[in-house]
Amino acid sequence: MDFRTISPQTTEELLEAIKQNQGKHFRFGAGYTDLIPELEMQMENGLIVINLAKLKDSNFTSIFLSEDGIRIGALTTMTDVLSNKHLQKFPVLIEAVESFASVQIRSVATVGGNLCTASPAGDVSCALVALGAVSEILIANGQIRTVPLTEFFTGVKTTVLKKNELLRSVLIPHQKSAERILSGFIKIGNRNSMEIALASLAYHITTDKNGIITSAGTAVGSVAETIRYTESACEFLLGKNMDQLSEEDKETFADNVLKYANPISDIRASAWYRHQVLWNISKSIL
Amino acid sequence: MNYNIIGKRIPKIDAGDRVSGKSVFGYDIELPGMLHGAILRTKYPSAIIKSIDISKAKKLAGVECVITADNVDTENLNFRKDHPVLKKGEVNCIRDEIAAVAAVSKEIAEKALELIEVTYVERTGIFDPLEALKKDAPQINKFSKGDNGNKNISEAFHYEHGDLAEEKKKSACIITRQYVLPKVTPTCLSPSSITANYSTVDDELTLYSSTQVPFLYQREISQVLKMDPSKIRVIQPIIGGGFGTKLDIHPFEPICALLSIKTGKPVQILFSRKEEFIHSAIRQSMVIDLTTGADKNGKFTFREVKIIKDNGAYTSWGVKTSFVIMQTFSSLYQVPACVYDADAVYTNNVFAGSIRGFGNPQATFALERNIDLMAEELGMDRAEIRLINANFPGEISGQGLEYHSCGHKPALEAVIKHSGYFTRNKKNNQGRYKRGIGLASMLHVGGGAKIYPSDGCGTTLKLDTYGYLTIITGSSEIGQGSETVLAMMAAEELGIDLKKIKVINTDTNVKPWDVGVHASRTSFVAGNSVLGALKKLKEKLSDKAAQLLNTSLEDLVFENGTIRSEKTGNSFKIDKIVRELHFKPPHELCEVSYYYEPSSEFQDKNFKGNVSSCYAFAAQAVEVEVDTLTGKVDVLHVYVGQDVGKVLNPLGLEGQIEGGVVMGLGYALSEEMIFENGYLRNFSFHDYKVPTARDIPEIHFYPIETHEKTGPYGAKGMAEAPLVPTAAAIANAVSNILGVEINSLPITPENVLKAISNKQSDQG
Predict the structure, then answer these.
(1) What pLDDT score does A195 carry?
(2) How many Å lie between the alpha carbon of A192 and the closest alpha carbon of chain B?
(3) In what order do the strands lie in the sheet with B457-463?
(4) What does the mean pLDDT of chain B come to?
(5) Minimal Cα distance from A278: which residue of B?
(6) Is residue A251 part of a domain?
(7) Is B208 in the same domain as B272?
(8) Are residues B589 and B616 part of one domain?
(9) Does B502 contact chain A (CB < 8 Å)?
(10) Most exposed residue of B1, B213, B531, B645, measured as fewest CB within 10 angstroms of its CB?
(11) Based on the domain organization, do B657 and B743 belong to the same domain?
(12) How many domains does chain A have?
């Protein structure tokens, strides 16, 4: 494995590195838990790696509360997410991180890496989509543009990021105050850790004191080209009483989730199973 | 009998080196001037090779040697001598080696491979054994003698005992099912490696090899390379997992030797993890058609078995699994009649190998599933049918296996009791998660297996003038804990501190002969060998001690590093006695040698005979929980009852039990090598799913001590057994809970959900 690395320590150096290498083939590296195995499978000739591991910019490296929500830096590790007190109110996110790989990998893998790898099976990405998070993208000219995560992924391993851009942070907007939260992440796999989801469901649903559903965010992974926000399933729930959902309501919800699933058969599972299990678990959460 | 060391929890004597990183594995070896070897393998699983052009590769700076079948002179490899080291004219599976390079660096060697030009004409491969058996199928292996009734049958086994027709008449219940078992790999943590060092001065070839059968290896390498066997020295570095994969020689080993011979320099070949997945030995897939019967009381009447095994393109020792499979069908539980046929069929798949259990997990799966189905049809309890048919002490099985000790029934009783089988299993099982307990037993050789002209092991002992003992054993340590057990035996017998015992076992130039690590034989065979040698050593010491203490031999006790007279209480330190022997007349060293050959016998041409000195029995009860929405099976508890004869080292024993159960768990639930047209599709730990720490259930172990008269301190072989019944017990549990039939592995969530869905549509 032979590549040149550039290790910017400041945002200025980072932007300079991006600008300088526009004509060349470069990739970003942060936790390296995806990049190294990928390069081991297929080395890319003339590759330059812009190493983000040395970058000292708190916008990238920390999690903090702001007026508009909770901002998670792209270089935040999975372990950082697990131990952050602000994020504990999002069980969907915490459960997604807990289901992610292993303790060792969680301690180096980054939230930004999970998003930018753009795997349809990304656990943490799926949870963030369900939470309605927004990507904050740093452009080489120093400006920031924002894209909702629902629009961030454009295909398997592709995103809206252009060659002169990188993900700086994601913002989870403040949620409406809720009486009750139904939030979680279900990952389907053959074993209990070190698993790539065969199908996954992220959900974060809130109700008022009467049990009326005031907000709903659900997203699915590993059943389409990208992680999908299951909008019509969310809309179906809004305004309904959580405690009075009928069997038929639950099935309609599951049917709506399935509208966003277009799974493939591969060595990990068949399309039939992905369909079936997604419907079963979708119904089961309500 | 009270022992000082035997039966105590002794940590492995090599554990410190392992955990501190001091152990030297094959990967760690580096010799002066060493070259790096790389192998060009075929692009296609089946093709004609029109031409190979190595001229560009040879010209690459840093390349010292390029070999193909055209510039080496070798004999074929492996059990049927049907496997060329380098392939010429055609390739028959995706592992096939076409050329090899030695270069000054790994990178250059790999670059050189890219410069070798091979012209292929791709052929349609045959990947299904049933296709290979068809009349118009081409002969896959041109070295096949076709002496088994079909050009593509590598080995055919036929066995029978009893009167099948008569027993069928007696049967109140007859169950016929087909079982389909996948290919799996043991994923040794240390990938395969070899370093070859040929000396042009004395023509000696030293191989740093992780073989588990060094003396058979030495002999076969000599045949393949047409060398004098004694010119080959095999040194075994620390072996990071064997599990049977290192029973057969694989072509990369003689290839590395050839590169070293051609260059006169040391050459090393290391497998990557991907190569380890694709190119190392695997447990073979098979289809088992099984019909079994029982009379109205549930007593077994007969078994009729037909097995088709995927041999792959070449024939390894793994083909002999038919022999172990036969044993389970002929002799696990009492059965008056058995007719058994197993054919190993050539295909263009990767060839099968020898993995822990050696065919027994597959056989036990099929048999134990059928037993559950018979119980169901007869309206009997699944525990009861097993108990009334269990093997018993004194039984001689239809095949001639002699069970002078037999803990089958106690093992079953232990797991039935401790698992709460009769109480917990009856719980109301409504709702999403359903729980239940499944049972299975197993039989395996426990006192070696006489399949080679000798099944013995040699030992040399050297007690030095400081009172330290060196055990030079023919047996090999592949992580199973044999070094520790052998040292414990010596400490027990001589009454010296375990810390004063060294075990030497890695060099064929030094150690006496042993057949190798297989058949769960090391503690039994090497243990008996060490005990035989210790007896001789003690006689020598006792003679001198009796003289010095002026007493009789019967009066002597070995303890605390001394030999003591019981009568007078006077004693001499052992090292003092050694010095007396050495530095005064008779001027003798305290060294002895001993060779132990087990009392087992060869089976006759009908496979009848007592092939092992004794037999191990085990039963497992497994409690599982099935998520009926996802199909996921969680194993909660595994209860293991196993006849080990006598517990020698509880700590080592528990390690083997737990490791075996985990291996069985992977086989049951998640492991499967997925091949498409001869290509392996899952060659990483991402997609080949071994259990992780979070998948491991509580494992409860109940050793059954039957004090086997032929075993060291009464012990039997035990190491393969714990993996054998696990998958069967899990499949039984899942089938019973859901009211479905799980007749193939692995029991993935998808397969379970499919079974539930099929049942619903059948009912709907």
Answers:
(1) 94
(2) 6
(3) B501-504, B469-473, B457-463, B590-596
(4) 97
(5) B630
(6) yes
(7) yes
(8) no
(9) no
(10) B1
(11) yes
(12) 3
The predicted-structure confidence for B377-426, as pLDDT tens digits, reads as follows 999 999 999 999 999 999 999 999 999 999 999 999 999 999 999 987 76
CA distance B496 to B4: 10
Please tell me if residue B631 touches chain A, with a CB cutoff of 8 Å: yes
Q: Domain with A249 in it: what CATH number? A: 3.30.390.50
Q: Is B96 left (phi over 0), alpha (psi -120 to 50) or beta?
A: beta
pLDDT, mean of residues B602-626: 96
B619 bridge partner residues: B441, B641
CATH number for A107: 3.30.465.10
User: β-strand B433-445 against B337-346: which pairing, if any?
Assistant: unpaired
B494-518 tens-digit pLDDT: 999 999 999 999 999 999 999 999 9
Domain holding B271: CATH number?
3.90.1170.50
User: pLDDT-based confidence at B427, cuts 50/70/90?
Assistant: low
> Does residue B428 have a pLDDT over 70?
no
Q: Above 90 in pLDDT, residue B558?
A: yes
Residue in chain B nearest A265 by alpha carbon: B750
Range of the domain at A278: 180-284
Q: Is residue B97 part of a domain?
A: yes
Which residues is B434 bridged to in the sheet? B626
**What average pLDDT does this structure show over B436-460?**
96
Task: Report the gap between the CA of B262 and the closest CA in chain A (Å).
Answer: 29
Q: Of the candidates A173, A195, A214, which is a domain's last residue?
A: A173
Domain assignment of residue B91, given as a range: 31-124+190-240+247-279
Structure tokens at B134: 């068809």
The pLDDT tens digits of the residues spanning A194-218 come to 999 999 999 999 999 999 999 999 9
- Among B756, B695, B735, B749, which residue's Cα sits nearest to residue B368? B735
SS3 A268: coil
Which residues in chain A have Cβ-Cβ distances shorter than 8 Å to B754?
272-273
Mark which of B566, B596, B626 sits at the end of a domain.
B596
